[in-house]
Write a structure and sequence with these properties.
Blueprint lengths: L1 E2 L2 H8 L8 E9 L5 H9 L10 E4 L9 E4 L9 E5 L6 H13 L9 E9 L3 E9 L5 H11 L23 H27 L5 H20 L17 E9 H11 L3 H19 L10 E7 L13 E7 L7 H17 L2 H14 L2 H11 L9 E6 L7 E2 L2 E9 L8 E8 L2 E9 L6 H20 L9
Parallel strand pairs: 5-6, 9-11, 11-14
Antiparallel strand pairs: 1-4, 2-7, 2-13, 3-4, 6-7, 8-15, 9-10, 12-13, 14-15
Helix pairs in contact: 6-10, 7-12, 8-9, 8-12
Length: 471
Amino acid sequence: MDRASALDSAFLQIEDAHSSLHIASVAIFEGPPPSQEAILEAIGRRLALAPRLRQRLLAVPFGLGRPVWADDPDFDLRRHVRRVGVPAPGGDEQLHDVVDTILSEHLDHELPLWEDVVIDGLPDDRWALVTKVHHTMADGIAGTDLLSTILETTPRPRRMPQPVPWSPPPRPGRTRLLAGAVRDQALLRARELRSASASIGGALHPRTLADTAVQTGRGLLGYAEAGVPLSPSSLVGPLGSDRSFRWTEADLGEVLRAHSRLGGTVNDLVLAVVTHAFRALLLARGEEPAPNAVRCLVPVSVRSEGARGVLDNQVSALLATLPVELEDARDRLNEVAIRMRALKSSHEADAGERLIRFADALPPAAVTGFLHLAFRTPHRNLTTVTTNVPGPTRQLFLAGRPMLTAYPFVPIADRLRLGVAVTTYQGRLLFGVTCDRQSTPDVAVFVAALDAALAELLSLARVSQPKGVTP
């Protein structure tokens, strides 16, 4: 059986009435909107390339094992691809309202965990596609790979091999699910014993073991230091169930030139821009941007090249305190770069990856209990999430229509009221801002500050001498 990992399962278990844990994108296409039948045909002909889209998660009775992926014998593409229209005149305000409603809705856990929504009624011969995939199925990189798999890279669909007729096996019953969970737990314990035996026998060099222990310890210490409560602010607190999603963008070429002149990495520049936006939001609310006011979870991919195209989650994270107290744009960028270098050398991401692997070895009920406790306890340890994932490297098409842009959506949960996702496509750097609609009615202030911060750094770069590029 194809069993979900502890991390995959976690995204399903922590979802509640106030948190819809799907990743998503809002893509804008050019040309007359295709008919619904044309959309269904274009997506349907490529489903075989992503078998997970026709599978659903089955829970193991009594929680004795993590859920398993199984083909859904009742799969119907029409239940996953629907169509809505925006009211006239179809401008940004109307589009935002429709997108907000779609992204606030939970995916049905009794079906394969994804949905596409075609949006008609946009001006200038355009239309939109909202793609939602539950985070238990994919992380950011896997989601980008999935978009590139389902869409075409040429206006005319490529000729594909004659597909083998899809014939799902019978859904496993309770007895088989229980037996599979017991068997998998036994196999896991056997692997642990073999690994321990190999280590004792000297298969692992003592220096290697010592280095691993030191690195893991340093990383765990970094996580522990991030457990210090943050300064109180309106950025953290209870969430409602409705989301707002806004977006903006910049010329990627200009950003790369700014990065080469100002130093640091592109991700440092992105985080410096996000830092300015949080500073501006706090000031607009009459709050002090204190040095310990904003701590950001920065996902880090641990996916190997050989695992590209696999739908699952292979991520760790860094916890970065953003220097919102700094007023000068150059100072903010330099400080972000210094802090990110220190975090990378602290091996936080390595420690996080090992913790996730450790969770895979624990009894599922213990992991579930810990997650429910952790995500139901009020805290002030984390403010936001900022994820930066490279987008498709080639232009994509659906039913012969070119995709002009695709803004990324990151879910928010627990007490995090605002998150930022960043990607690239067709020479543009694309920002998507997710927020809790009830507690963050002033999201426009944040988006405007992103634009202002980008413009300021690009202006600084034009008058700066080039620096060595940091890989």
